[in-house]
Hints:
- By secondary structure, this protein is mainly beta.
- The chain has one domain: Hypothetical Protein Aq_1857, Chain: A, CATH 2.60.300.12.
- It is about 10% helix and about 45% strand.
- It is built from one helix and seven strands.
- The radius of gyration is 14 Å and the shape is globular.
- The two termini are about 20 Å apart.
Amino acid sequence: MSLNVTPQAADWYKKELGLQAGDYIRFYARYSNTSDIHPGFSLGITTESPNKPGLTQSSEGITFYMEEKDLWYLDGYRLNVTYLPEHDDILYGYEQETARAAN
Length: 103
């Protein structure tokens, strides 16, 4: 599992949420009726400092992360967070990762 937030997406979050360098965005699994990968759950976001981060990526001074307890949501997937300028919005894309061959 992995996380990729483009610089343009990070800038969008900074603008929309009033974030500054050094701030955090947490991705988490939440109950919902829609999901591309887990029925009954979807991806939520909040601005809070990490407790037990299991996956992190920094982009444009912002640290994006997912807590260890939520990693199951991305198991086997890469989360790509990109900016859509034509909609001035964010796209969350889930790319299935291939299993690595055992040595």
